[in-house]
Fold this protein.
Amino acid sequence: MEDSVPIGSFTYGVMLALLLFGRGMDLLSTWVATPNLALEANPIAKKLGWKWGVIVNLGMCGYFATWPLPAIVIATTSVLVAARNLQTAWLARALGELAYRSWISARFAQTRWGLYLFCVWGQALLTAAVGGALMFFCPLQLVPFAVGMGIVTYAAAVAFYTVLAAWRSRRTLAAMAYSEHL
């Protein structure tokens, strides 16, 4: 596997195009779902906002395009995140960002925490198993290995940020319930 490629080479151009497409789709799908970033689970992305988020992502694409393995991992993860965002973006837009967040929070309050975690971790582990299989069976082939690693990274990110958002939501609901009893 190649470690790095020179800036301006054909491979650099391909990696840059993959990264720009993947990160662009992630940003576009995020904008479709939450134009005000009210639903953004990543606190760093939320703090950066759109202007700095785009600038940081462009710089990141230019930087990581020199390394094919991370470039393919990032592009794969980004496309999968974009697909997940688009899965519920229509509902978030139809209800509005704050109404959607409130609706989801109410569903969390009605669900046993253990069941929720079982479902989130089950989804993550099953998804990671697909990526892990690619990595296991294609250890010396750059593209399948990197795609597998991207799938595993996606599964970990989804599990982490989904549980983080749910935990914050449950904590907020608990604080609201506590303040109502005072």
